[in-house]
C-alpha cells in the first residue's frame, strides 16, 4: 500500500500516473494547498519542504519500517526502482531517462510554473515577467519537440518516468500560451499519453477535490510563504 499525499496539480498527477500504470495499490490523502494543509506538523514531519506530493510506502522492498519520500522526481525514481518498471536497468538507457527527468524537474516544471503564476495569478500584470516565462516555456516546448522527432517517447521506444514527469506540465499548454500545432512531435506524443487508460484513471482520481477557481485567500496561503511561515508551522 502506498499512502499518497496529493492535490490535483501537475506534480501530484505525476505520481498517480505512475501508480495507475504500475497497478500499485494506493490511498489518496488530500493535501489542500489552498487551505494550508501542507503546513500541518504531521505532514511536515515527512515532507519538510511543505510541498506535496509525498508518499509513505507501507511495504518497502527491504521489509523494514515504512519509507517516506518527498519531491515528485524522487518519488518517481523510488517507485520505479521499487517495482522495476518505467526505468531501464541498462546503464545507458537509465542515464537517458534520468537526464530527462531532471530536465523536467529543473526546467519545464519551474518555468511553466512561473508562466502560470505571472500570467494567471499575480495581482499585477508585469509584461516583462509574462514574456520572460512564456518565451522560456516556448523554448522548452521546442527542446522537447526536437527530442521527440523519430521517437515514441522521450527516452526512446519505451514509456518511462521521464514521460510521466513531463506530461502533466503540457496539459495546461493553452494557459501557458502555447499552441501544440507548432510542435507536431510533441502534439503526437501528448495525444498518445492522453489516451492511455492509466492516464485517464490517474486524472479521474483527483476529480472532485478542487472546488472552482483559486480564491484570494488561497493565493495568500500559496504565494505569501517565507522562512517564518515554515518555522511557525
What would a concise description of this structure say?
The chain is of the alpha+beta class and 233 residues long.
Tell me the layout of helices and strands.
Elements (H helix, E strand, L loop, with lengths): L1 E5 L3 H13 L3 E5 L10 H4 L9 E4 L9 E4 L1 H12 L7 H31 L5 H21 L13 H10 L13 H11 L2 H8 L11 H8 L3 H6 L1
Parallel strand pairs: 1-2
Antiparallel strand pairs: 1-3, 3-4
Describe what you observe in this structure.
Helix 1 links the parallel strand 1 and strand 2. Strands 2-1-3-4 form a four-stranded mixed beta sheet, covered by helices on one side. With 233 residues, the chain is α+β, with helices and mostly antiparallel strands. The protein is globular, with a radius of gyration of 18 Å. The longest helix has 31 residues. Helices cover 53% and strands 8% of the residues. It contains ten helices and four strands, in the order βαβαββαααααααα. The protein has two domains: 99 residues, Glutaredoxin; 106 residues, Glutathione S-transferase Yfyf (Class Pi), Chain A, domain 2.
Labels describing this entry:
2 domains, Glutaredoxin, globular, alpha+beta, Glutathione S-transferase Yfyf (Class Pi), Chain A, domain 2
* Anisotropy-based shape: globular
Considering DSSP H and I runs of 4 or more, what fraction of the residues is helical? Answer: 40-55%
Number of strands: 4
Number of separate structural domains? 2
Give the end-to-end Cα distance, rounded to a whole number of Å. 28 Å
Family: Belongs to the GST superfamily.
Protein name: Glutathione S-transferase
GO molecular function: transferase activity
Keywords: Transferase
